[in-house]
Structures are given as structure tokens and as C-alpha cells.
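User: I want to check something. If I give you two sequences, will you return the structure for each one separately, not as a complex?

Assistant: Yes, each is folded on its own. Here is the first sequence with its structure:
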Amino acid sequence: MKRQDYISWDEYFMGIALLSARRSKDPGTQVGACIISADKRILTMGYNGMPIGCSDDEFPWEREGSPLDTKYLYVCHAEMNAILNSGTADLRGSVVYTTLFPCAECTKALIQKGISEVCYLSDKYASEDLFVAARRMMDAAGVRYRRYEPSGREILIQV
């Protein structure tokens, strides 16, 4: 008889997104994304961080101050990195699992690549314009979005 306590697909893919987020050097917010095909294959992953060639030690991680002295003008978001990491892969009809609801800029890229669904863990910026706009675009483009429903199960990764 097969075991019954295996994790669900949602737990698996959100777990990959959460593990990817652990690669982020951002001291305030770590975000991970995992894009999967319609047949449940991992196509690509990403996390928020500086662009290749821009040192994590030389660019700012601050959240406040003049724009050039904060992280916001420099950091690539997890969803954008996942898309860029996909190379020439066809992402049409795929699902992105992300630990934070995508901003409007990432949403534009997700729509352009044909991603059909967003499964997100946190929506802590829902009332901010960048995220209201993201929802409007997803609604207009027919991209489904849903909050990940945690099972309450603890999954421990030990190495």
C-alpha cells in the first residue's frame, strides 16, 4: 500500500518557491518564485536579488532614503528572475508559485509570457497602487490568481 502522507502539488511547488527565497540577500524581504508547466514540471525558478554583475555588497539594501540609495531601483524581483532564468522556454499556460503577490511590473512580464495562473502566499501590499494595478491587468488578461492555502503541516528540510 502506498503512503498517504505525501505532500500535495501546491505544498511541493510553494515549498520550492520558499526554498528559492532563502537564496535572497535582501535583509528585509525574501521572495521566491517557481514556474511550472501545465503537466506539473518545474520550468524555472527565481528569487529577488541584484542583477548579475552588480555586487550584493556594493549596491544598497536600504528601504528608506533617496531613491538611488535604496534597493528599489536595483533589485530584480523573483518573478522577473524566474522569467529571465527560463531562457527560451515556452511559458504559455504555466503557473507561477510565488511567496509574494507580484507587482505590476512583474505582472506585465508574466502576462506577456503567457502565464495563466498565479498562486501566491502573501499579499501584504494588496492596497498599494502597484498591486492594485497588477490585479487589474490580470483580470483583463484572464490570468487567474489564488492565495495558497497552507495545510498547517510542517515540512522540515535537513541537510
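And separately, the second sequence with its own structure:
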Amino acid sequence: MGRKDSPPAAPRWDRSIGLVLPGGGARCAYQVGVLKAIAEILPRRSPNPFPVISGTSAGAINAVVLSTRARLFRRAVADLERVWANFHTGQVFRSDSRTMIKSSLHWMAALVLGGLGGKNPRSLLDNQPLAELLERNVNFDAIEESINQGYLDAVAVTAAGYGSARSVNFFQGRDDHEAWRRVRRLGRQTELRLEHLMASVAAPMVFPPVRMGQEYFGDGAMRQATPLSPAVRLGAERLLVIGVRDEDPEPLPKENEPVPHPSFGSIAGYMLDALLMDGLSSDLERLTRINLILDQLPGRQLQGEFGTLRFIDALIMMPSRDIRDIALRYLHEMPRPVRLLLRGLGALNYGGRQLVSYLLFESGYTRELIQLGYEDAHQRRQELIDFMEGAPLDAPAGILGWRALSEEYSQRLPALKLPIDSA
């Protein structure tokens, strides 16, 4: 899609790092805080330090904004912070009483009457305000300028095709990047536009699907079994992943204690959490196993029919506090019609905090998440500096910061030994 001049970044920063920004709804404000801390670590007028950026769902919005403003990384992050820190629900979906009542009655009529034919509801919420916000603030033509000027190699946005049942990585990058096709997933080179972002954030049932060509697309987290893959396929040799979940599982009731039946709100939150988060955990576990194998081979790489399999270092940033608890403290900021809808779903209690944590697009909440990401990154400042300078990660399987890895694998790492022919 474009040519690439000599990389303008300061030579001491590693130019092989891919930035991965998974989805997470309102939780993705945390990513902005981490990026803000990274921007302050870099020299003031540094360009984008990540030649490859990959985003999904709300993370795709952050990825594209960084790509359009790649010449000055700190300014790009400041623009992101300005929007996220001043969010309110009405900028994301229509939340007035009339719309909420109309939507509720529409769904009720469809259920009671067994469908309304061509007038069936298409989604629970109308996210047209988000489309208008992005159209006003994102200059998609600037992506190509960033590529041509050497500030960016490629950016990828993931969406799920309802017709083809495939995860599609829409990417814009240099001319030497090639499309790819694997089981249930493919990479398609294109010029990224508003519809790609709106498709990537279109959570099933919650927001309407988006038609592109002869197919409708929804949230990129659906069918995205390998969220780390797009960045690697586009040339990243190391990964910085900014996730938005690292909470502990809920404790089970003790013997003889009542077991509460899950509400629709808690089930919806569970489903949204599984949709947005489980793919990343599975892919990190897959990367761990691959790295463990490659670590036993000469050069830590494997040549095969599909190219070279390389050892990938990955630094993982996750929230140090449970975001669900933070969401409960800001629940009162949500518009009253939305709170009434969530109350009807049984989501306005401790069990429903999962769902609320994804839908709470209000400034008090997003500002605290930005601050949390900023503080977490500063706590790990030296780790980030070492990683950005290209230092190898002294961590199990080359993955640092993923708590599940240290808990599940640390005791088993020495057990894996492959017989290697010394000849």
C-alpha cells in the first residue's frame, strides 16, 4: 500500500516490536494510560516506536488513532487521552429515555409476536454516535502518509465475517506485505476506513453488524483464536501486549452456603468477557508452548513449509487492580435510562459488575483506568525501557508479565527437553 523510507526513530529503540491492543470496551481506557507512560519514557518529539500495530474491537480504535498520528507519538497519545478522559455514554450509543424505551418495546414485540419480519430489531443499542465521533476525529488518509514517511510498517484491524464464519485481519501496510489464509482466518490488505472500525467494535447483539462488500461483519474478538498472529505476520519479532483483564476468579460459595442463580446481566457479562478475553489467554498459552520448543532448537527457530517459526519475546501489561470493582464505584455516572435497562437484566449488583465494566463509557471511570495504566507502567518502567531497547526477556518462555504463566508453567518448565542431534 505504500513505500517505506529509512526509519526515523532513535536508533537505541528496537524497531522490531509489534504493539497488540486487544478489545475490552470501556476497559480499553487502561491502554491509553500505559501508552501515556511509554510516551513519557521516549524523547519528547519521538515518532511512533511500534512499526506494527494490531487492534481488535475498542483496541482497534486506539491502534488506528496511533497510526494516523505516527509522526509524533506523544501527541497521538495525548489525543487519545483527551477523548477517553472526557467520554460519556451518549458519545458511544444513544442512551436517552425515548431510545431506550423504543428499543425495549421493539425487542419485546419481536419476542411476543414471534418476529416482525423485515422489521426485526438488529441490535440492543444504537452506536451511531460512535460512528459520528470517529468520523469527526480520525483522518484515515493519514495512515498511508505514516507508512510512506516511514513512521509505520503496517496496522491491522480485526473483524469477524458472519457469512464466511472467518476472522478477517484487515491490514494496511507496505507493498511487500502479503495477504494470508489459514483455517477460519485470513489477512486482507486494504485501505482502512470507518466501516472497518465500526465492524470491529460491533459486539454481537449489542451493536449492529456492518456490511462491507457482500458480507456483514461483527466484533473482531469473535473467532479470533490467535490475536497475536496479525502482528507477527506483519513483521513483528517481539510483542508488547496491553491487555485489560487480570482479575482473580470469584470464590465459590462454601459448603451449605446458598448458591445464587446467575442473572441475565451476569451471564451477559460472562459471555462478553469470554468473547473479548479468552482468545488472548489461549494464544499466550500457545506462544508459551511454541517458545518452549523453539528454545531447545539451534538458533531458536524452525524452518518449515509455511516459513520460519521464530522465538517471540512478549511483554504483557495487565491491570494491577480488579477493574470490575472500579466500575461499581462509577455506576451512578451512567445515564438513568441505561441503568434501568441494566437493572432489568439484573446487572446492577456485584454479580453484574463484569458487564458494567465493559459498557461504562463515563469520564470518572475512564480517567481512573487511564491513571491505573499510567501507574502500572511506571511501576514497570525499567522493564519497559529494557524491552524497548531490545534487551532479551529474562522470563519463562520469553514472556514477561502474564501472571497465569508464572502460576501454571513455572514449576513445569524444566521438564520439557527435546532430543537434539548435535550433528
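Because they were folded independently, the notes below concern the second chain alone. Residues 166 and 182 are 9 Å apart (CA to CA). The chain has a mean pLDDT of 84.
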